[in-house]
UniProtKB/TrEMBL annotation:
GO molecular function annotation: ATP binding; ATP hydrolysis activity
Keyword Oxidoreductase: no
Alphabetical UniProt keywords: ATP-binding, Nucleotide-binding, Transport
UniProt-recorded name of the protein: ABC-2 type transport system ATP-binding protein
Species assigned in the record: Sinobaca qinghaiensis
Entry similarity comment: Belongs to the ABC transporter superfamily.
InterPro entries (UniProt xref): AAA+_ATPase (IPR003593), ABC_transporter-like_ATP-bd (IPR003439), ABC_transporter-like_CS (IPR017871), P-loop_NTPase (IPR027417)
Stored SUPFAM superfamilies: P-loop containing nucleoside triphosphate hydrolases
CDD domains named in the record: ABC_DR_subfamily_A
Pfam families named in the record: ABC_tran
């Protein structure tokens, strides 16, 4: 649908994007993942034609008109005219996107319903919460029915219900639109993405179909929840089983290893008993996208 070939960008003498190449599959959702400073926002800005690359090219396939009219974009920190109401703002965005006035008004009603803002259509944007503004930003990005939708952290200001609503909306939109969105919420990406594009320091660290990426690991994972801090226990486990990867966050520990599930579970339980740690829950499963991401970042 769109291809990026050897794309590069430097700022203040520092190369931010380093000759990246990838192609997005049509009518699929690609999650763009990376640590802060990885180059995600710069990449999205170049795809949206907001920023010009220093080298390389971006090719939008199967289009006979200005590619910018076929792109919808939501920046990470959108700005709005606070004196306008939601319906006025989205209608204006539709007209700027090339829709006739009557069609823009009609489409504005539709997308405000899609984004859960129908009851706030006449409310001034200055009165909107952060989550409502995030929804409004998505509404303006989709009003002109773009073939390519670019979203920079579209769920960062949303509560859990709002994130769930937008995940469902993106799943519906991909029937007619190709979507690339950056996110730090890996759980949502695991639920909705078809493809995963990981960036690190301006380079592509991994680019693969999600199902293939997940099935490529033979590691097993265990998640332990307790009522006590697990830092000391985690360090003890690292020394005993150096082949395991262990992440501890206060009273939660995630343990990954190449051992068979039954053998790992027995060793984890044995250690918990030895250290007299009362367990609230112990769950087993395949490696999560979150742990895969951390693994990739540690080895690039």
């Amino acid at each position: 649908m769109i291809s990026v070939e050897n794309l590069s960008k430097a700022m203040a003498g520092t190369e931010i994007i380093k000759r990246i190449t990838f192609s997005l599959r049509s009518h699929k959702i690609t999650a763009l993942l990376g640590m802060n400073g990885a180059g995600k926002t710069t990449t999205l800005h170049m795809l949206a034609a907001i920023m010009k690359p220093d080298a390389g090219r971006i090719v939008m396939h199967d289009t006979g008109r200005d590619a910018r009219t076929e792109i919808g974009f939501l920046p990470q920190h959108p700005t709005f005219h606070g004196w306008m109401n939601a319906c006025e703002y989205v209608t204006m965005a539709g007209e700027l996107g090339g829709l006739p006035r009557k069609e823009a008004v009609k489409r504005a009603e539709t997308v405000l319903v899609q984004t859960g803002l129908q009851e706030s259509a006449e409310q001034r944007i200055s009165e909107f919460s952060g989550g409502m503004k995030q929804r409004l930003g998505i509404a303006q990005a989709i009003i002109h029915r773009p073939r390519l939708l670019l979203l920079d952290e579209p769920m960062s200001a949303l509560d859990p219900q709002g994130r769930k609503d937008i995940v469902l909306l993106l799943a519906e939109l991909k029937k007619t639109t190709t979507i690339l969105y950056s996110t730090h919420i890996l759980h949502d990406a695991e639920q909705i993405a078809d493809d995963i594009l990981m960036m690190n320091k301006g380079e592509i660290a991994a680019f693969e179909r999600l199902d293939k990426l997940m099935s490529g690991s033979s590691n097993r994972t265990f998640t332990v929840h307790t009522d006590v801090p697990l830092d000391d226990w985690g360090e003890h486990l690292r020394k005993r089983y150096p082949e395991w990867t262990i992440y501890v966050n206060e009273t939660k520990a995630e343990i990954e290893g190449p051992s068979a599930e039954s053998a790992m579970q027995a060793k984890v339980m044995e250690s918990l008993i030895e250290n007299q740690i009362t367990v609230r829950s112990l769950t087993a499963g395949s490696q999560s996208l979150d742990t895969l991401f951390r693994e990739v970042m540690e080895h690039v």
